[in-house]
Amino acid sequence: xxxxxxxxxxxxxxxxxxxxxxxxxxxxxxxxxxxxxxxxxxxxxxxxxxxxxxxxxxxxxxxxxxxxxxxxxxxxxxxxxxxxxxxxxxxxxxxxxxxxxxxxxxxxxxxxxxxxxxxxxxxxxxxxxxxxxxxxxxxxxxxxxxxxxxxxxxxxxxxxxxxxxxxxx
Length: 169
Prior knowledge:
Elements (H helix, E strand, L loop, with lengths): L16 E4 L21 E2 L6 E20 L5 E9 L6 E6 L9 E21 L6 E8 L11 E3 L12 E3 L1
Antiparallel strand pairs: 1-3, 2-7, 3-6, 3-7, 4-5, 4-6, 8-9
């Protein structure tokens, strides 16, 4: 699995797809949250609990999940779990008692994780509306990228055709 920094893996254009236990109407289907368009939303029916599952299309390494909420229909309580095989799940985020949003986009920084599937499980709505987000993003943030390499030869003079040791600093 290759580490790729600062790319949103949760985009349909990157091979991702989503399913959910429900959707409020035809315009609020699950893939609307991974279309890179903040004017579209996935929104569940107005009941708890609800699940939205993202298939990244292949194993990915990531450490950041962002949810851009519909500010009128965010979740008071939810979990996010990950899986490599869509069978065995590991919970990585557990939010309870969220009654207001300080910003519409909520960022969860997690331990670097390898998974193909990400499951949002909304257990309690913050309003009478459903669980709803405009975009769900998955990144590997802050990965080290080699931009400069300084090499110093072990000898001051190297003859053409001869090998020399190089020390990397």
